[in-house]
Design goal:
Length: 363
Amino acid sequence: MGMTRKELLKLLGLAGAGGLLYIADRLWPFRGPEQEDGVRLTAGESRWRPAYAVLQEEGRLAERIEQAYSIMENCRLCPRRCGVNRRAGQLGFCRAPEKAMVYSQQPHFGEELPLVGRGGSGTIFFSNCNLRCVFCQNWPIAHEGWGREVSDEELAEMMLDLQRMGCHNINLVTPTHVMPNILGAVRIALQKGLNLPLCYNTSGYELAEMVRLLDGVVDIYLPDIKFMDGLEAERYNLAAASDYPQMAKESTAEMHRQVGELTTDEDGIALRGLIIRHLVMPNRVAGTREFVQWVAANLSTKTYVNIMSQYRVEFMAFDYPLIARAITSEEFVEAISWAKEAGLTNLDERSLSHYALHRRRVP
Ligand code: SF4
């Protein structure tokens, strides 16, 4: 059909609102049969739709895809700004080819509860990484590139499979270097009935101007903020990302501008908004106090923040004395106490229960 849903509604202007919705639901090609399973109501009355469906309806998704792929020709998709032409086979720091590489796709039940619900979060783990920390817990995938190349069409099918399995969102893990492929795949999947929010699950090493390309595409942003000090970011990264704190702060502020605080449906499932993750590291290396203060001062005290306790020594971290151990109960308790002192009111439930457990061990 060559007209937008909005135009169709205008054309049928004599019908009542309910009738219009009914007719549009039957005629509009992007609302396939999966819509009947996938549609959920927000706390309000209106039907929820993913951001990218609206962008497509406005005729603006195709131009975003074109723009993103053209950036890949002189690649500056992330702060590394390698300038290589990935479409001509050149590889930059992340070693990602033109096509997306995927290690796995599956419902995941270990993510934040609003992402998991009953059906799980539909994770797609992309191979390679533009940051590459020395303590990476996914190092075979992120550093060594385990996975296989997929076309945008195959990636779209993976998204649809996750929807059929009952997942509540498409959780794109380490998406920065494959952002154009994701946009291309989403458009294809939308035409086949995808109706789930995209969750952009990033290390935080992003360029704010690239995040702006995702405005109106992504509903849920899930960035890490790993370090607040450039020297620490430089020390614990394979290629000196001393600009990490600045990049993470600027891009997270842009994400917050786009989607705001987390909103959920009547079952508590995330529909839209920002969730920030912060991994507490030994010896205060992550700058947790500065992190929580920054969130409170620059975003909102109601921002959903997950302060995580599960740091473990992985990959090359054994060679770095300050991070070659797990965190102590004292370190986790002080981290959550700082968050509370900063006035953060929307801390992840699991991090609060870990806090309660650790507190018992601290005199
Ligand atoms: S996405 Fe990869 S190739 Fe592109 S700028 Fe970043 S590290 Fe370099």
